[in-house]
Write a structure and sequence with these properties.
Blueprint lengths: L3 H5 L8 E2 L2 E2 L1 E2 L10 H12 L11 H21 L7 E4 L2 H16 L5 E5 L8 H10 L2 E5 L9 H6 L5 E7 L11 H10 L4 E4 L3 H4 L4 H4 L3 E5 L10 E5 L1 H5 L11 E4 L4 E3 L13 H17 L1 H20 L4 E4 L8 E6 L5 H10 L2 E2 L1 E3 L4 H7 L4 E5 L6 H18 L1
Parallel strand pairs: 3-15, 5-6, 5-7, 7-8, 8-9
Antiparallel strand pairs: 1-2, 4-10, 9-10, 11-12, 13-14, 14-17, 16-17
Helix pairs in contact: 2-11, 3-11, 4-5, 12-15, 13-15
Catalytic activity: (sulfur carrier)-H + L-cysteine = (sulfur carrier)-SH + L-alanine
Enzyme class: transferase
EC number: 2.8.1.7
Length: 406
């Protein structure tokens, strides 16, 4: 049984007040709160078990190494990966995508070669490809979504041409909540011999993910959205693509031997993990993923689907609220504006006075905002600990905002 009230007790911050009101945290799309087990793991990691990893050969170093490296298997299990050596540690999805851009795309793209993106992409899955456009003459091809925020996978496949070298697409829009049929895209791209990178930042939080079933070449996740620490994350890279990559950064454990005249690189995944890593951060991520898997990803998805449906019904009852992204297949993420209201920042400020935390702005999705003809929205994004009662608080706060700004 999924007991959301018991789950909420695992997150100490949810018991606090903001502006004299109980906190209603609906900014999970930006960063999720942390359960006590993660906080305890981080505290213990620094207070009792900290040392650098891999080469210390003393008790604390061996202990830290064992815990740190053990997370690789946890991430592999979370993503449905059989070979944990295909898991590369990162500081988050941004680093993972940049690793692919510098390590795989840069040496493989010639001027005029194409990268296919959807208009829904987060800037983290846009800017690295602009780097290649500016520096190597790569061409970015854009695929739009329809009026409901649905991305037609066939349009992505049809955009693949003879010069296309990569498709990079989100699994779930951080703005619209739209869930993308990445498996269909990967099937079509594979038939044309084109690899696919999937940004899993939002999707992996809300639903079970199995990269083998998806059929992609790269799948990136970020820890701070997965109820883990900031500066933690990973990217799964297929063995074939790993073999085609060169290191992105140099130093630390990514080398086997260095002389005055040469350098010999370590084997993957270490080959792509330079410098002293975020040891405690990754350990905390492992604990967070174990916590989520303990609840059951299917159970989390079902709970959030019920929240989505309830929130959609409540918001649909407010005819002065304009929700962006109305496709039926979406996560519990709602971006909206209010008729006659001022900037999204004004709305979010009023909501904050009622203890409701939402995000306001472009959500690092400039091309999508241009496509929607908007300069900003408010976004309420739900997580595994949110409740229908909190949806009601959100609606009450929106009615106040409408009264004050409408």
């Amino acid at each position: 049984m999924y007991d959301v009230n018991a789950i909420r007790r695992d997150f100490p911050i949810l018991s606090r007040e903001v502006n004299g009101k109980p906190l209603v945290y609906l900014d999970n799309g930006a960063s999720a709160q942390k359960p006590q087990v993660v906080i305890d793991a981080i505290t213990k990691g620094y207070a009792e078990e900290y040392a650098n990893v891999h080469r210390g050969l003393h008790y604390l170093s061996n202990l830290a190494t064992e815990k740190y490296e053990g997370v690789r298997g946890i991430i592999a299990r979370f993503l449905g990966v059989k070979d944990e050596e295909e898991i590369v540690y990162t500081t988050g999805t941004t680093m993972g995508i940049n690793l692919v851009a510098y390590g795989w795309a840069m040496p493989n793209l010639e001027p005029g070669d194409e990268i296919v993106l959807s208009v829904m992409e987060h800037h983290a899955n846009i800017v690295p490809w602009h780097f290649l456009r500016e520096r190597q003459g790569a061409v970015i091809k854009w695929v739009d979504v329809d009026s409901t925020g649905w991305l037609d996978p066939q349009k992505v496949i049809d955009a693949i041409g003879p010069r296309t070298k990569l498709v990079a697409v989100t699994h779930c829009s951080n703005v619209l909540g739209s869930i993308v049929d990445v498996r269909a895209i990967c099937d079509g791209a594979r038939a044309k011999g084109v690899p696919v990178l999937v940004d899993g930042s939002q999707a992996a939080v809300h639903m079970p993910v199995n990269v083998a079933e998806i059929g992609c070449d790269f799948y990136a996740v970020t820890g701070h959205k997965l109820y883990g620490p900031s500066a933690s994350g990973a990217i799964w890279i297929s063995r074939k693509r790993m073999d085609e990559m060169r290191p992105f950064m140099g130093g630390g454990d990514m080398i086997r031997e260095v002389t005055r005249d040469s350098v010999t690189y370590n084997d993957p995944p270490m080959k792509f993990e330079a410098g002293t890593p975020g040891i405690v951060q990754q350990i905390g991520l492992g604990v967070a993923l174990e916590y989520m898997m303990g609840l059951g990803m299917t159970n989390i998805a079902a709970h959030e689907a019920s929240l989505r449906d309830y929130a959609r019904a409540r918001l649909d009852g407010l005819n002065w609220v304009q929700v962006q992204g109305t496709t039926r297949d979406k996560a519990a993420i709602f971006s909206f504006t209010l008729d006659g209201a001022g900037h999204a920042h004004d709305i979010s400020t009023i909501l904050d006075k009622r203890g409701v935390a939402v995000r306001a702005g472009q959500h690092c999705a400039g091309p999508l905002m241009d496509h929607l003809g908007l300069n900003a929205t408010c976004r309420a994004s739900f997580g595994l600990y949110n409740t229908t009662e909190e949806v009601d608080v959100l609606v009450d706060a929106l009615e106040l905002a409408h009264e004050l700004l409408g």
